[in-house]
Amino acid sequence: MGCVESMNYEIVLRDATFKESRDYIKTHFKEFIDVQPGFKVFDVHVIGLPPIAIGLDGGFVIFPYTKPCHGTFLLRVEDKEEAARLRAMKK
After folding, report:
1. Residue 87: CA atoms inside 13 Å, Cβ hemisphere, count?
2. Do β-strands 52-57 and 60-67 pair in parallel, antiparallel, or remain unpaired?
3. Is 31 exposed, middle or buried (0-12, 13-18, 19+ CB in 10 A)?
4. Number of folded domains in the chain?
């Protein structure tokens, strides 16, 4: 899965800064990992100011996505395999 537009996603925050996204994830989700810009989630490189937080909630992955000319969104996507891959990185 490499195109965010083809995913079934929920917008958690709209027009968020990278700090707002990071703070939201760390406040609302018990489970998260911090990654560097360029890290791939769903075969998409995330961009932003490090550290970039990616939240995990059951089979859901919550991550910031910047769409050129539209701003940054915090998205929630259900994908149990990607959530498991990210959890394995924490160990």
Report:
1. 14
2. antiparallel
3. middle
4. 1
* pLDDT, averaged in runs of 10, over the chain (91 residues): 72 94 97 96 90 97 89 94 94 68
Q: Can you point out the beta strands (E) in the chain?
A: 9-13, 31-35, 40-41, 44-45, 52-57, 60-67, 71-78
| CA 53, 36, 6, 59 torsion-angle sign | negative
Structure confidence at residue 2 (pLDDT): 54
- State the residue range of the domain holding 43: 4-90
The CA-to-CA distance between both ends of the chain, in Å, stands at 24
Structure token digits, residue 84: 């498991």
Q: How far apart are CA 74 and CA 14, in angstroms?
A: 7
Task: Please state, in angstroms and as integers, the Cα–Cα distance from residue 59 to each residue in 38, 63, 76, 79, 84, following that order.
Answer: 23, 13, 10, 6, 8
pLDDT, residue 1, reads 46
